[in-house]
Fold this protein.
Amino acid sequence: MHRRIFLAAAGAAVAAAAPLAADIPIIDTHIHLFDPNRPQSIPWPGKDNQVLYQPALPDRYRKIAAPLGINGAIEVECSPWLEDNQWVLDVAAKDTIIVGTVGDLEPGQPEFGKQLERFHRNPLFRGIRYGNLWGRRFAEEAAKPAFAADLKLLAGAGLVLDTANPDPALIETVVRLTDRVPELRLVVDHLPQCTPPSAAAGRAAYDANLRELGKRPQVYVKLSEVLRRIDGKVVEDAAFYRARLDELYGIFGEDRVLYGSDWPNSDQWAPYAKVLGLVREYFGGKSRAAQEKYFWKNSVAAYRWVKRESGQPRGA
């Protein structure tokens, strides 16, 4: 079929899909909080980023997200500084739209156990993030016995591991890591942004690893960072992304996919309403049960977050 005809047909199918039910709650499982006005400033984003270098705090997020039907959000770390775990928890305590935080600790380091015990005392602390971030060597570190031992501590505490910025090597590492710590709940973030290898052998291995993870009920994935730039322009047509989303949805199923906006990093791609609108359009063609799972129910299973407002759906 000619590409233009194909896209037109796909677009018509999307347009004909049933709209997302307006009464379905939405929990955003991926936002970042930071404040460059602090005396110590921030490790990210840099001052040269004119879009992001401004306070990203719960009150600003609430003003943007609440009118769009967002009921709560989980903050995900964007700093390797140990005390920023506490800073985020203190900020989150003041605004009930934040239902959980995912911090930054390093498994395999001597102080991990004490640090985990310290932050886990706060019920908003729901896990840690580790992966292709802050210059860390995920595959190398994950192979060490001390790393796996600390992730067993994490799992024993009922907490989750988020990965960061997936590529084929990270996906392979997640397979090996969940072999070693099968009791660990793990969330792969931004999976639509992961570019498969171009070589046939590499693509086959990547596909096999994804399918293997698809068999593991403790592994969840975020259908987040969906938007892409083509020739310098962000493509906003939902039909453009349908094949990739269908592929990932087919592998992981309706019980293992999560909504995340990646705010405010997402502002570099499109306003929040468009980021949300794209996945609302995609899920508008699915059953109400599937919509509820993606937009909030699966987040409870993955993060066991804390309900803090009467309008929020049932949390842990």
